[in-house]
Amino acid sequence: MGRRRSFDVDEVVQAAAELFARRTYDGVSIDDLVKWVGVHRNSLYGVFGSKRGLYLAALRRHVDQEVRPDLARAARSGAAPTWDLLLLAAVDRAPDDSEVAELVSSVFAELDAATGEPAATEALLGRWLRERPALGRDVPVEHDAPESVPAKEI
């Protein structure tokens, strides 16, 4: 019998989503993830299989829990969305990863439907770009890790 998992998978996915949204997929190493989420490397590989597996879980969680529930409000308001992970996925990962491209495209189609026209979607995304801090900003993992996810071993 395998060892019992001693961490909350959803907490790890949420913490990983925050880091990927700050530093992009290529800007995050496995070591960064281990420090940030407080879970050992073998545990991450055991549950997610790879950095990409954790990234996809984080992106799907972000889309399902933060983007889709907010589509209609975002379409009506003048505020820029706080969908950094989705929007960075569109420019950072979608060109090289067909699974990410498919998810991003489907969400943008849903946003088009919610806004009523692609031009409104483009304006919304443009507001996000203007309001987002510099994309290349480095976030030091050891100084900025969330305190809600303590280091755990399995």
Largest sheet: none
DSSP helix fraction: 55-70%
Distance between termini?
A: 13 Å
Beta-strand level of the residues, as a percent range? Answer: under 5%
User: Could you tell me the number of beta strands?
Assistant: 0
Shape: elongated
Mean pLDDT: 83
Run of helices and strands: HHHHHHHHH
Classify the secondary structure makeup into a structural class.
mainly alpha
- Uncertain segments: 135-139, 145-154
Supply Rg: 16 Å
Total helix count? 9
Structural account:
The two termini are 13 Å apart. Helix content is 64%, strand content 0%. It contains nine helices and no strands. It is mainly α and 154 residues long.
Describe the structure in brief.
By secondary structure, the protein is mostly helical.
What attributes characterize this protein structure?
154 residues; 0% strand; mainly alpha; single chain; 9 helices; disordered C terminus
Please describe the topology of this protein.
Layout: H1 9-23, H2 30-37, H3 41-48, H4 51-67, H5 71-76, H6 84-92, H7 98-115, H8 118-131, H9 141-144
Helix pairs in contact: 1-4, 1-6, 3-4, 6-7, 7-8
